[in-house]
Inverse folding.
């Protein structure tokens, strides 16, 4: 069977489980996951190698494939310049895709379909009331987005580990009335339920083609930016209210250990990666929270992040964290552009070229 390849974007509203799905498929933590909405800020490419499944009497078989998965920020109504940037990331991720996975959280209450809201020939609109307002508006917004796409969309009903099987059928009926999905698959990203089935269906939708990335490359995002995300994840987990949303992390120094000749001796200490990172917040009050009494919070963030970074890099890590105030950075397009890891990568390359001249 000829090899297949293609780009597949994962979209859905905040907290639907996009990053959990990406990590579950890749078998490695690539995207940060927290219970707080809007954890993911930029597009992340995860490169997934899907092995050939031989056809047998009971199994339909599947060609081998490379799926470039694109995780996106949650679809939400933009309030700040940063939100607008995040939504631009979603739009970009939907450009020229082979397929889209639209993921919804089955624990959210269903919005009602309003038969009078749509004109003749238009897609049904949802009736949005009371406490469902925000989440339903976000699903509605997502539906409007996918209606403009010309690639197949698979609906993933995520978190089925939290509901009874009897509750699944009404959900399928509800969603199939709203859009002509290529497939509707109930899954649990956390418990890895139905992910193989989902991969079979995705590969089915891909064209024949060669790999976009080398076989063992897991992501297009260099390690130093994954490191920044791991630090941001700890801030999201350990601080509350506005602080996580007003925080950005920039790696200022990243010194990898020199390459080791030959295999390390048994019992030898691992080499050290030296990393300095700036944590930007918007106000001095937030800075005080991030540092904590006698630096306790910053120490906790650093210790937790260091452990994860060490397991990502496979080295020991010396991590220095600094907290800096950049007033209202979420409203400053220039600063937000500079935070984009692709932009930082360009700047680093320029700096390196200048140093070499
Ligand atoms: N019970 C259950 N929880 C899940 C499942 N998938 C994700 N979650 C949880 O839902 C929360 C949000 O998951 P994320 O993967 O960060 O969601 P996201 O859609 O990437 O969120 P944003 O980055 O905010 O857009 C986390 O607490 C996950 O552990 C699932 O299949 N079952």
């Amino acid at each position: 069977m000829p090899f297949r390849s293609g780009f597949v974007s994962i979209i859905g509203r905040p907290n639907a489980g996009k990053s959990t799905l990406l990590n579950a498929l890749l078998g490695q933590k690539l995207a940060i996951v927290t219970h707080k909405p809007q954890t993911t800020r930029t597009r992340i490419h995860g490169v997934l190698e899907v092995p050939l499944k031989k056809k047998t009497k009971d199994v339909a078989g599947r060609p081998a494939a490379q799926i470039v998965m694109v995780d996106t920020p949650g679809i939400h109504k933009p309030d700040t310049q940063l939100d607008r940037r995040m939504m631009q990331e979603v739009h970009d991720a939907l450009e020229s895709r082979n397929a889209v996975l639209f993921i919804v959280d089955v624990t959210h209450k269903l919005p009602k379909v309003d038969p009078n809201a749509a004109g003749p020939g238009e897609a049904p609109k949802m009736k949005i009331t009371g406490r469902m307002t925000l989440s339903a508006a976000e699903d509605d917004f997502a539906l409007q987005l996918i209606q403009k796409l010309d690639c197949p969309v698979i609906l993933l009903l995520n978190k089925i580990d939290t509901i009874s099987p009897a509750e699944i059928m009404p959900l399928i009926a509800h969603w199939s009335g709203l859009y002509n999905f290529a497939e509707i698959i109930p899954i649990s990203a956390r418990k890895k339920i139905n992910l193989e089935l989902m991969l079979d269906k995705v590969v089915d939708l891909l064209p024949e083609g060669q790999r976009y990335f080398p076989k063992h490359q897991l992501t297009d995002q260099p390690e130093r930016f994954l490191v920044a995300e791991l630090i941001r994840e700890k801030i999201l987990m350990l601080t509350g209210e506005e602080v996580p949303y007003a925080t950005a992390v920039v790696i200022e120094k990243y010194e990898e250990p020199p390459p080791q000749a030959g295999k390390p001796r048994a019992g030898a200490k691992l080499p050290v990666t030296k990393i300095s990172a700036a944590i930007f917040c918007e106000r001095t009050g937030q800075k005080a929270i991030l540092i904590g009494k006698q630096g306790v919070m910053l120490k906790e963030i650093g210790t937790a992040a260091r452990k994860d970074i060490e397991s990502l890099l496979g080295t020991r890590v010396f991590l220095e964290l600094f907290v800096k105030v950049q007033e209202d950075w979420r409203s400053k397009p220039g600063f937000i552009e500079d935070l984009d890891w692709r932009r930082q990568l360009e700047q680093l390359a320029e700096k390196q070229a200048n140093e070499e001249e």
Remarks:
- The chain has two domains: 4-205, 223-261+268-356.
- Residues 296-313 form the longest helix (18 residues).
